[in-house]
Specification:
This protein is mainly alpha-helical and about 425 residues long. Helix content is about 50%, strand content about 5%. It is elongated, with a radius of gyration of 40 Å.
């Protein structure tokens, strides 16, 4: 460690001790202006045998115990590096060099599991419903949801998952180590939007190192750290994936992609279904536009594609009565168009489709039906010819439909006669 970095850390340790309580808020806001402080603290944490490690851990705990949100977030940004220091020392079986780090992590854990009154805290999480839209999905894109009695009964209900109460811990053991570390990562993920790029990079490096140490992928990545396999839990990997997802969408594309692949690699070896489900879902949902963004100074957010909101239910209910009314409106509109053509003296005649009439179709819409003598004649051309009534296959108002067809044919013949200028034949039209 350089003497300059050591001087920056020593100055930081001394100025907070003489600070009055009324000036804590102003001091917390001024920490972001000290650009050389954070890199120097990372060097202290990575050097397990540094003389400054114990006073630095004590100072960070004082920051967190003060209750000032900015000071708490300042401490949380070093959490990934602290976790890796603890795990690496535990794998090396040299617990004497990590006593101050264990005390710091246990202190943060014991402060977070209780409320201001010292009572055990129970955390609640609301599971979103797929039937209601959110920033991640639209119900219309998933498909139609069956409106069963059970679905309607649970439509307005929200499922709530509870975590806690958690037991206080005084020391790390093989049984409770990852229980405490998973909860600490949960607290870290709750403040992800305030974390710096250095902290996100440290989280990605922690994920890769924990998942590949002692496995063949360690030689592929050319990592020369510890070679002992570290025991992990599925819940711990899920919390790592949550932080990696945020890092991926906020500039750390290369490290985040490697970390996500390493976590999925370890989850496949350990057969952790929860980690595989979350990791593969995030990997499938990432878009190229979100990954190509290298803007680390802009607003930090996860890019998602929101479909436009549209009306999914028609205002007019479709019933048999409305279908029948729509059919008669169509016939009325055709009749009006024929009358308008006759009034204007035009010759364009719309073709009327007649159902249930046998025979071939003529250009003017008449059908050719065979006579008794074997010849064919236009339907309804002679006075004594019996007009055939179209039969509705459903049997509704067949007589009225037949009269409507005869009337349309008579109007058509009137229009043809007026267009050709021929005299009236004197035949009865009705």
């Amino acid at each position: 460690m350089l003497a300059m970095d050591q001087g920056v850390v020593e100055e930081w340790l001394s100025e907070f001790k003489t600070l009055p309580d009324s000036a804590v808020s102003n001091y917390a806001a001024s920490l972001k202006d000290k650009g050389a402080l954070v890199p120097a603290l990372y060097k202290v944490i990575r050097e397990n045998y540094s003389d400054l490690l114990e006073p630095v851990c004590h100072q960070l705990f004082e920051f967190y115990r003060s209750g000032e949100p900015q000071l708490q977030r300042f401490t949380l940004q070093f959490l990934p590096e602290l976790l890796w220091s603890l795990l690496s020392v535990s794998a090396a079986r040299d617990p004497h060099t990590s006593g101050c780090i264990e005390a710091l992590l246990l202190g943060i854990y014991n402060l977070e599991i209780v409320d201001k009154d010292g009572q055990s805290k129970v955390l609640s999480f609301t599971v979103p419903s797929l039937s209601k839209p959110s920033v991640y999905h639209e119900p219309s894109t998933i498909g139609s949801l069956a409106l069963t009695e059970g679905a309607l009964a649970n439509h307005g209900l929200s499922r709530v998952v509870y975590s806690g109460p958690h037991l206080q811990r005084e020391t790390f053991t093989a049984q409770n180590r990852f229980e405490v570390l998973t909860f600490l990562l949960l607290c870290y993920n709750a403040a992800l939007s305030y974390m710096t790029s250095t902290s996100l990079q440290s989280l990605c490096q922690l994920s890769s190192r924990v998942c590949i140490c002692g496995y063949p992928r360690q030689q592929m990545r050319r990592y020369k750290g510890i070679s002992t396999r570290l025991t992990v839990t599925s819940e711990f990997l899920v919390q790592l994936i949550t932080g990696i997802h945020y890092a991926l969408c906020n500039g750390e594309v290369e490290l985040g992609s490697k970390a996500l692949d390493d976590v999925l690699y370890r989850a496949q070896l350990e057969l952790f279904p929860e980690a595989l489900l979350v990791g593969n879902a995030i990997k499938s949902s990432l878009h190229g536009a979100a990954l190509k963004s290298n803007n680390k100074e802009g607003a930090r957010s996860i890019q998602v594609e929101i479909t436009p909101t549209s009306s999914r239910i028609s205002r007019n209910a479709v019933t048999s009565l409305s279908i029948r009314g729509h059919r008669w409106k169509r016939h009325e509109s055709q009749e009006v168009s024929v009358d308008s053509e006759a009034a204007l003296g035009g010759v364009a005649i719309p073709e009327i489709s007649v159902t249930g009439v046998s025979g071939e179709r003529m250009p003017n819409g008449d059908s050719l039906r065979p006579r008794s003598d074997g010849r064919t004649q236009p339907d309804g051309d002679m006075l004594g010819t019996t007009s055939e009534v179209s039969l509705d296959p459903r049997g509704h108002d067949s007589g009225t439909r037949g009269q409507e067809v005869r009337r349309q044919k008579s109007v058509r013949r009137m229009v043809e006669n007026e267009g050709s200028g021929s005299a009236s034949t004197g035949r009865s039209q009705y």
